[in-house]
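Practice problem 4.
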C-alpha cells in the first residue's frame, strides 16, 4: 500500500544553526531554501535535504527542517536513523568523535547516536550492505577517511564545512520513532496501513513495525542514548492510491485534507501523515 518514505519533517528553532550541523557535520547538500513540492507548505523558513538514491517508485527521502511558523510544524525531539555502509561506519565514528557518540551493537549492525542542536537524536547505523561508499547523497563521492575526527570543520565561506564533499555516505533513512499515548491503538492503525510487526519490547512498551521505513511506536520513555519518540512528526509516504490509504487507516481525528499531489491526515497522537500519489511530482 505504502511504497516509500518521501518526507520526514522536523522542527528546528534556528535554520542557520541546524544547517551548520546537517551540512557542516553530516555533509548534506541543501536542495534549496524551502521544501520541494511534496505536499508541504512552500515557506522560506525551511530547508530540505534529499537522502538516498533518486530512482525507483519512491525516490529519495526528503529530510525537511522547518521553523515553527505554520502547520504541520514537524517533529520535536525525534529519534530517527540514517543508514550507512559497514565500511563507512568507522569513518562516521571518527568524524563525530568530538560529539561523544553513544554506540550500540545489534549484532548484525552497529549504530552511533548523537544529538543535533534541537535535541533530535540522530542515529547512523551500518545497515546498508552496499559495497560502494559514496557521499551523503549517495552520488558516488569519495568517503572522508579522516572524517574530521578532531572536530576541525572549517567553513569555506558558504556556511558549509570545507570537508563536506568528503563526508562518508548516508544512504537513506531507515527508522523513525513516534511517541504514542496508546500503543495498542496506534499499532492497529499503522497495521491497517500495511505495516507489519517486526519486534516488541520486553521491558519497555514499544513495537517495531516493518514497512517502507521501520516505524517504532513508543509509549513515553527513554531509549538508547536517552532518545525519545518524536511528537507531532511530519511523515509523507508514496502510494499508488492516496484515497485508499486514507480509507484503510480511518477513522482519522483530523482530515482528510487535499494537498498538492495527495491527501493529508493526522493520527490520534498528532503525527501528520501525507499520502502522495506515486509519480505525482
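Answer key:
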Amino acid at each position: 500500500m505504502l511504497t516509500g518514505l518521501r518526507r520526514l519533517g522536523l522542527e528546528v528553532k534556528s535554520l542557520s544553526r541546524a544547517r551548520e550541523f546537517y551540512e557542516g557535520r553530516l555533509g548534506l547538500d541543501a536542495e534549496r531554501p524551502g521544501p520541494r513540492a511534496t505536499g508541504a507548505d512552500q515557506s522560506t523558513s525551511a530547508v530540505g535535504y534529499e537522502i538516498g538514491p533518486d530512482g525507483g517508485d519512491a525516490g529519495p527521502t526528503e529530510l525537511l527542517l522547518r521553523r515553527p511558523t505554520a502547520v504541520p510544524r514537524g517533529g520535536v525531539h525525534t529519534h530517527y536513523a540514517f543508514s550507512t555502509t559497514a565500511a563507512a561506519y568507522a569513518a562516521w565514528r571518527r568524524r563525530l568523535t568530538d560529539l561523544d557518540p553513544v554506540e550500540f551493537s545489534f549484532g548484525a549492525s552497529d549504530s552511533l547516536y548523537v544529538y543535533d542542536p534541537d535535541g533530535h537524536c540522530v542515529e547512523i547505523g551500518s545497515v546498508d550492505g552496499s559495497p560502494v561508499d559514496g557521499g551523503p547523497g549517495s552520488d558516488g563521492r569519495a568517503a572522508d577517511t579522516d572524517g574530521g575526527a578532531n572536530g576541525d570543520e572549517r567553513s569555506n565561506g558558504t556556511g558549509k564545512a570545507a570537508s563536506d564533499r568528503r563526508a562518508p555516505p548516508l544512504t537513506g533513512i531507515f527508522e523513525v520513532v513516534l511517541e504514542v499515548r496508546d500503543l495498542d491503538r496506534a499499532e492497529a492503525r499503522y497495521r491497517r496501513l500495511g505495516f507489519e510487526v517486526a519486534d516488541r519490547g520486553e521491558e519497555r512498551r514499544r513495537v517495531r513495525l516493518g514497512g517502507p521505513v521501520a516505524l517504532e511506536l513508543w509509549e513515553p520513555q527513554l531509549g538508547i542514548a536517552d532518545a525519545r519518540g518524536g511528537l507531532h512528526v511530519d511523515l509523507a509516504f508514496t502510494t499508488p492510491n492516496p484515497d485508499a490509504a486514507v480509507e484503510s487507516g480511518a477513522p482519522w481525528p483530523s482530515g482528510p485534507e487535499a494537498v498538492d499531489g495527495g491527501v493529508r491526515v493526522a493520527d490520534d497522537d498528532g503525527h501528520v501523515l501525507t499520502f502522495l500519489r506515486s509519480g505525482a511530482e
